[in-house]
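Go through this pair.

…
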Amino acid sequence: MNVRAVRKADLERAGEVLFEAMGRDARVGLVTCPWSSPREAQDLVAHYLAEEPDGAACLEQNGRLMGVGFARRRGEIVVLGPIAAAEPGKGIGSAILSELISTADGWGSASIRLHLDARNPSVLALFAGKGFSVVDSAARVERPIAAPPRLDAARGLEITPFRPQDIGELMVLDARLTGLERPGDISQVVRLVARRRGSIAGYLGAAGGLLGPALALDVADLGALVARALVDCKETAVARMSMAAPTLPLALLALGFRMVGLGLVMSRGVMPPARPPQLYCMFPEVL
């Protein structure tokens, strides 16, 4: 087995491996496949390869690409995923994971984070064996198409569309609560910003019915952001909800969401600085 960097010539095969692996896990109820075709998975590979070429690794066996995985820098934190193997149980995922950890260590990262499904004990054991520990659980929640919730006054909270001039203040809040430095991610996906007495108290990103990343200083403010986002949502709303704030599940249940799955957020190295009320990114990584 040969672990090497992903090249442009690998895009089609890497997309196939990613799509087939996600589909295999989806058929046994471990994940929900985020792509409808191998081409969509290939587009993700191309995006990650262009964004962080040194963080795209694959495993080749007898001249055929059999696994692929990705690492991306967000300041001093590296986020991993997805990692996929054409044949499970053959050590392919473990070899790619070791390569990505070595890459992250070479970058001088303070910690490495990832998300995995809580119903996959073999994968959990793999990451635990590489020094990762669970720092949060994340429930997948869904809300079917329905009438939007009533928007109540939220204790002086003002919710407005994101403006480019918000990015500096958003980055300060985001880094303080998550430890991540991700201005590019935030500027692309954030749709709503919450302010109280002129200061940013939270934000929410969305792409169609996928909600997140989103965070706020308290659960009520995050609930208000989600309620506002549902006004414009014309499809099933899906989110990956942190379970660190005990009352957040109640807030989202009150808005019509139901829990359909449970995942784990794992970290190797420095622990997250805080675990605020938040929705993790849905695509399919922790951001």
